[in-house]
Amino acid sequence: MTADPRKPRHVAIIMDGNGRWAQLRARPRLFGHHAGAKRVKEIVRACPDLGVKYLTVFAFSTENWKRTQTEVAGLMKLFKRYIRREAQSLHEENVRVRFIGDRVRLEPALVDLMDGLELMTAENSGTNLTIALNYGGRDEVTRAARRLAHDVKLGNLDPREICDETFPRYLDTYVLPDPDLVIRTSGEARISNFLLWQSAYAEYEFIDTLWPDFSADVFADVLARYGLRDRRFGAVPV
Ligand code: IPE
Ligand code: IPE
Ligand code: MG
């Protein structure tokens, strides 16, 4: 069965606006992050009906360490709690979870939970949920280049073989198709170092909704607009 071209197979989301959502309610930023985390599940659950097989969400960037120690520590605690609480139900819903980003800077207790969830859901065949945690596109590309250089040095790779098909095998996303659609919430029209290589030909949707207000209905509306787009990939329509 060929996939419906009006439906994106892979949707990536820059989940932005948690802080402003909390500020509007005169609450601390972490209150917004907790509200935002609750939304992820609803969006994952909406994927099968909408024809989305891969969902990738940006949870923490390599630049987010610049935030206050209180916010960073609160976020790390939230990630651990989220994995502990949601692991079983994600597994029961046949979701396959993966993490991308550099794990070296993350605390071992969090990395253990991430590894555990990946392992637990490794055989699942439903929605592929990828969580970008301590992820930066430039960081990913430079880590990939480092590994590739190492392979060349060891004689495992001939430099003449390096091309746009072989290079992505060194990226964190090597098993994932490129995103068809990248959504950013909260009204900011920038990509903030997300999936730089992979979204070369993605469609973009910048929407004003703050992430904690992003519902399955909003998601369905965005996908309906995607269905009206004309993707040419550099070619001239015949
Ligand atoms: C996105 O929301 C979540 C993370 C970056 C962790 P923000 O925290 O960036 O929210 P705003 O942009 O300040 O409203
Ligand atoms: C991007 O949002 C990162 C995540 C959503 C995790 P930011 O709020 O960190 O991006 P900037 O600072 O507005 O570019
Ligand atoms: Mg932000």
How many helix segments? Answer: 6
Q: What is the CATH top level name?
A: Alpha Beta
Instruction: Report the CATH superfamily.
Output: Decaprenyl diphosphate synthase-like
Q: What name does the CATH topology carry?
A: Undecaprenyl pyrophosphate synthetase
Count of spatially separate domains: 1
Task: Provide an overview of this structure.
This protein is of the alpha/beta class and 238 residues long. The chain has one domain (10-136, 177-226): Undecaprenyl pyrophosphate synthetase (3-Layer(aba) Sandwich). Helices cover 39% and strands 14% of the residues. The chain has helices at residues 18-24, 29-50, 69-92, 108-120, 137-153, 216-226, and strands at residues 10-14, 54-61, 96-100, 128-135, 181-184, 203-206. It has a six-stranded parallel β-sheet, with helices on both faces. The chain starts with 9 loop residues before the first strand and ends in a 12-residue tail after the last helix. The mean pLDDT is 97. The structure holds 3-methylbut-3-enyl trihydrogen diphosphate (2 copies) and magnesium ion. One 3-methylbut-3-enyl trihydrogen diphosphate (IPE) is lined by residues 15-20, 60, 64, 75, 186.
